[in-house]
Design brief:
The chain has a five-stranded parallel β-sheet with strand order 4-7-8-1-9. Strands 10-12-11 form a three-stranded antiparallel β-sheet, with helices on one face. The chain is built from 20 helices and twelve strands. 36% of the residues are buried. Helix 2 (26-40) crosses helix 3, helix 13 (286-301) runs antiparallel to helix 14 (313-334) and helix 17 (369-392) packs across helix 20 (441-457). The chain has helices spanning 13-19, 26-40, 55-65, 79-85, 114-122, 149-152, 158-162, 177-180, 196-208, 232-235, 243-248, 261-272, 286-301, 313-334, 349-353, 361-364, 369-392, 396-400, 415-421, 441-457; strands spanning 69-72, 93-97, 130-134, 139-143, 154-156, 173-175, 184-189, 224-230, 251-254, 406-410, 462-466, 469-473. By secondary structure, the protein is of the alpha/beta class.
């Protein structure tokens, strides 16, 4: 969100009028500010990667058209993150009538409640107090499951009826989230999970911009931008979203996963850069970034995974954090600064990956999640290693050695031991370090494991695992 600057100094309606402030609708604010930002070349959605030529242009068109929007995409495609950035296109501050009994932030020039209209009609401008509402506060969101009509639309307040207010009077109403966000942006996540009755209330708001509670003829000319998010598998299922509501949503913005590994790595670096600092810093070789992101790419192509449920970007983030944590633990135990992740650190991915993948029951054939994760990790290592073989010719290393050479590795072994164990190996092994040129023992240990795991994936060497340690044999 934007930094909160000091609000304007106008404190009553007369002072506001003297500034020349003009009232605008929410969607007009968004359109005007987007227009200015486009003209000035300002970054529109900071932190959003890979959508520059696809999603962002569609959002721009929707804002310029004054549409409510539905973000349609699988889990982990930054739908909520984008919606939370849209208040950037609101004015920094808007004035409202500062009265404790007003249920909404009333536009001083266009009040919608009886009390707001009465205040304007009965009082001199200098007697009408004005306060300022920052754009960071003009956004609210709700998750659909469990949401009731009273939560987001409103309900008759029994306490007010007991106090003598007529049931048909405006004062008897208790406003829900949407009316309270008058002059703001409201987002509803997982739209298909919303109760049919609430959906009916929403399409009335989208069409007429008014609120009707329990059939009482009380109308409020709401000024609001409404956003939705949904998963294609449920949104397109018959009966999940009523047709009248679908018809009233102005633009559908379709999101997607990163088109290539480069975009995925950029997201990892952006989201997790701070995780690598601290008293025990971690330095991640580029090939480990590639492997973590390739694991996600393989999962998104795997026949064992239910692709309709998607494989979230959070899968990559959780696996990366797990790998970094394993390396950091080794750094703490052995005093290695910085610690450097290795292939053996990926042996702990079960804890971060289990539960994030939905198995395809027809394709998995009684395979466990662990077996599937092992298969996906192995395929990712083979894919990335194959690219380095083409660049550095690393496959030749396996042909150089004579039988009987054994190299033991593991996530808890100090990096210094790798150099000792490779002393019996011919000098040709130095070719392995071309993948990440460095004299640092921890980096070189990571390179050793990468090449060993890659050679094993290509069936060049054998491997055995016992008690968390891996032994490769040439």
């Amino acid at each position: 969100m934007n930094a909160v600057l000091a609000p304007p100094k106008s404190s009553n309606l007369r002072q506001l009028s003297e500034t020349g402030w003009q009232s605008k609708t929410v969607k007009r604010e968004m359109r005007d500010n987007l227009t200015r930002m486009l003209a000035e070349g300002e970054e529109l959605f900071p932190g959003i990667v890979g959508y520059e030529d696809s999603v962002i242009p569609e959002i721009n068109l929707a804002i310029l058209a004054g549409h409510d929007m539905l973000f349609l995409g699988e889990k982990g495609q930054a739908k909520s993150k984008i919606m939370r950035l849209l208040p950037r296109f609101l004015d920094p501050w808007v004035p409202y009538i500062d009265h404790p009994e007003l249920p909404v932030h009333e536009d001083p020039y266009r009040p919608i409640t009886s009390l707001g209209k009465d205040l304007i009609a009965r009082h001199d401008p200098e007697d009408i107090p004005i306060a300022w509402w920052h754009r960071n506060e003009r956004y609210s969101e709700r998750l659909s499951p469990g949401t009731k009509f009273a939560d987001i639309i409103g309900e008759i307040d029994p306490a007010k009826l007991t106090g003598g207010v007529s049931m048909g009077a405006e004062e008897a109403l208790s406003f829900g989230l949407i009316p309270r966000m008058h002059r703001g942006i409201f987002a509803m996540n997982e739209l298909p999970e919303l109760d049919d009755l609430v959906q009916v209330g929403l399409f009335n708001i989208l069409e007429e911009r008014d609120v009707q509670i329990r059939g009482f003829p009380i109308r409020f000319d709401l000024d609001i931008a409404i956003l939705f998010s949904a998963n294609p598998a449920t949104y397109n299922r018959s009966g999940k979203v009523i047709p009248q509501l679908k018809d009233r949503i102005g633009s559908i913005i379709q999101t997607h996963y990163p088109h290539d590994r480069v975009e995925g790595i950029e997201i990892l670096r952006q989201e997790l850069a701070d995780d690598l600092d601290g008293d025990y810093p971690v330095q991640v070789p580029f090939f480990m970034y590639q492997i973590v992101e390739e694991i996600t790419a393989q999962a998104r192509r795997s026949k064992y995974i239910d692709q309709a449920s998607g494989v979230s970007a959070r899968f990559s983030l959780a696996n990366f954090r797990n790998m970094v944590a394993s390396a950091r633990q080794r750094g703490i135990l052995h005093g290695e600064k910085p610690a450097v992740p290795r292939i053996s650190d990926l042996g702990h991915l079960y804890s971060s990956a289990l539960g994030k993948l939905e198995l395809d029951l027809m394709g998995s054939h009684q395979m466990s999640e662990k077996h599937i994760i092992d298969s996906i990790v192995a395929q990712a290592i083979e894919t990335v290693f194959g690219e380095y073989v083409e660049e550095h010719g690393l496959a030749e290393i396996a042909e150089i050695f004579r039988g009987g050479v054994r190299v033991e590795v593991g996530d808890q072994l100090p990096s210094s031991q790798y150099a000792e164990r490779l002393q019996s190996v011919p000098p040709a092994w130095a070719k392995a370090f071309e993948v990440n040129a460095s004299e640092d023992q921890a980096v070189r240990a990571s390179c050793v494991e990468f090449v060993l795991a890659g050679l094993y994936a290509m069936d060049k060497i054998s491997r055995s695992t016992q008690f968390g340690k891996i032994e490769y044999e040439f």
